[in-house]
Amino acid sequence: MNKTRSKIILTSLTVIIAISALYVTFPETINAQLEGNIFATHSGGTITTTGVVIDPVYTTTTDPEYTEATVEFDPMEYLREFNYGTVSTLPDGTTLREFTIIAEDDQIMEVSPGIFFNVWTFNGTVPGPTIRATEGDIVRINFINNGAKSHTMHFHGIHPAEMDGVFEIVGGGGGQFTYEFEAGPVGVHPYHCHVMPLEEHIVRGLYGVFIVDPKEGRPAADEMVMVLNGLDMDFDGENNFYAANTIPFYYQNNPIQINTDELVRIYVVNMVEFDPINNLHLHGNLYNYYPTGTSLVPSTFTDMITLSQTERGIMEFQYEFPGKYLFHAHKVEFSEKGWVGIFQVTDNSEDKKLAEKIDHGS
Amino acid sequence: MEVSDKKQSKGKLIASGIIPFAFLIVLVVYIFGPGSDVLDLGVPLPEITMEKIDFLDSEIQVTVRNTGPIPVVIAMADINDRIQPAAVEPDGFLERYETALVRIPFAWNEAEPYRIGLTIEDGTRFEKEVEAAAPALQPTLELVGFFALIGTYVGIIPVMVGLLWLPFIKKISKNKYHFFLALTAGLLLFLGIDSIEEALEISEENLAGSFNGVLLVTTVIVLSFLGLYYAGEKLVKKAVSSTASSRLSKPIAVALMIAIGIGLHNFGEGLAIGAAVGIGSIAFSTFLIVGFALHNTTEGIAIAGPLSRGKGLVGKALIGKLVALGLIAGSPVIFGAWIGGFVYSPFTTVIFLAVGAGAIFQVIITIMRWIREEGDKNFSSGAVVTGFAAGMLIMYLTSILV
């Protein structure tokens, strides 16, 4: 009798232990601490958490102790950075601008806080450097492909067929090619890799902006470059992030500082793939729009321009009133996935002289 | 001399049992040991599973588990594929099988569908859809009472009503009695299959592939079956070996086993009801309560079957036992509904449904044996065959109401 009972107890004990073993293997509970962090939501509410806040506020670092990223990219620096190359004068008096562009396809970029992506780069960043020349200059690009795959540089513009970067494939592991052509026509143009599969070579990051200034120059302005781009993180043929200059929400969390009554000129290039359109809507203002920048006369005065693939133009505006002004894609899905920014307009009327001192031209 | 020999051979026996284990440990240590990346072939793909989504006041909470082969870091949250700031508690780094709570402030609207997305450090996005947002249930006294009421309507009352057939079953001929026993077995077989289906469905929808849902359910069913089979045998043997004056006769022992089996099944049913109300996937209509009630009345008949041949069971003693059996079988619905509604966990639900299924299969075996012992040692009599078929059919038809 007793033996039977003990056997029953033993059996039920075994069952209990077996089930609790399952729970140990697959723990159900969550251990949280008592200390609270407070963070604000996009809609203005606040939440106290004992955990870690995951909000796309971007900071740059390539310190291997903190990050696996190898790309150091500061969107604020990129915004106003123009590369004029190494300048020399040819015997006939023409200006020669020489650039060295290195392609790589093994870089890791922290594209949004905590999210790492293997990008393909021209000179180590996405987008590549903004190349700027004046109409009629000779542009010479010493292209080195240090990637594992083949790459090229294809410029939009007017140049000989063999300088088009399509059929002259540059092999990886140190392959070289020299692109040389006369800068033109005046305007803002994209450049990008043109190796098949083309979509992959573009969306992975091999693109940048090429600006050709008119000989007579443009009026002095606070100039900036915005490449409207997207990132397909999971390779499903749909963008997961959208941005002006790669990093989602960057200019929202770090507003672009501009002054009242100062002309602002943006060179905008749409490099978004997968989605047929993209656009730029400016708050509290309208801009003069120069499609492709090829004419010095604006085509329209508006606050909303829609751009298809590699469609681009120049936008010029100035703010009368100081304050915070949003700019974003009015395809709001894109803005909710990162393509949104803020202009912080400051009233600097006393400092006008200082503003005029800033040299924007070549 | 002999003693030391025995000792020596015992030592050898233990050693021969341990040596293979030792080699196995050496092998595992070698594979996981430092510098042994020889076996690191292929690319391990990360995987996370959102096990539970709660809609709170202007906030959506996601319980997420790392169900992949490698650690992950939760980096971003989105709702309907639109990025939202969020918090992850205790932190975003998840080892294998570790869970975290992601809190997303969001002004959600009741009864609308939402797709909740989480992105990990390599940019992979995982998504789970909620058909209709409903506020997470708080264990208020009112709701506790509500679930108790549902449990009573769905569990206790129908089982008790089913037990009222006892006097009727008592008076019928042996052949008809076999019909009722077989009917019981048919009813139970249906319930068992029903439990398995439910368990597999939940594991498919809410548990990650790495839980091996089908194998988890199978294993728990077999363990539950074996455990109850063993305990049941002991219980019945004890009942038989004890004197006639004992409180536990064989029919009572069998009925008790059936009641326990059905009780375990009903616990799973309660979990499902509570969870369904909790996650807002059903509106608990009166029609549904009627369906469940009709369905569960048959469970009372299952308990009454063997009980009707209990000798000397009359009057108050019988009523007391009936009430006790009815409570054992029916009341777990209430406890299940509480747990399912307030602290729903798909893993727990799957486990309980599987335990219930194992219990029911054990009861079926007990009843089939009972028929064999009672009857002419054959299952092919008209009464048994029609009874079994009728049992399945009744359950199927009443299940349509649910």
What's this entry about, in short?
The complex is a heterodimer of chains A (362) and B (402). Chain A is mainly β and 362 residues long.
How would you characterize this protein structure?
The complex is a heterodimer of chains A (362) and B (402). Chain A is mainly β and 362 residues long. Chain A has a single domain, classed as Immunoglobulin-like. Chain A is 14% helix and 38% strand. In chain A, the strands form 5 sheets. In chain A, strands 14-13-16-21-18-19 form a 6-stranded mixed beta sheet, with no helix packed on it. In chain A, strands 4, 5, 6, 8 and 10 form a 5-stranded mixed beta sheet that branches. A 5-stranded mixed beta sheet of chain A has the order 15-23-22-17-20. Chain A is globular and about 110 Å long. Chain B has 402 residues and is an alpha+beta fold. Chain B has 2 domains: 48-130, Sandwich (Immunoglobulin-like), CATH 2.60.40; 141-400. In chain B, the strands form 2 sheets. In chain B, strands 3, 4, 6, 8 and 9 form a 5-stranded antiparallel beta sheet that branches. In chain B, strands 1-2-7-5 form a 4-stranded antiparallel beta sheet, with no helix packed on it. In chain B, helix 2 (141-163) packs across helix 8 and helix 6 runs antiparallel to helix 7. The interface between A and B is large, with 53 and 50 residues. Strand 3 of chain A pairs antiparallel with strand 5 (86-89) of chain B, so a sheet runs across the interface.
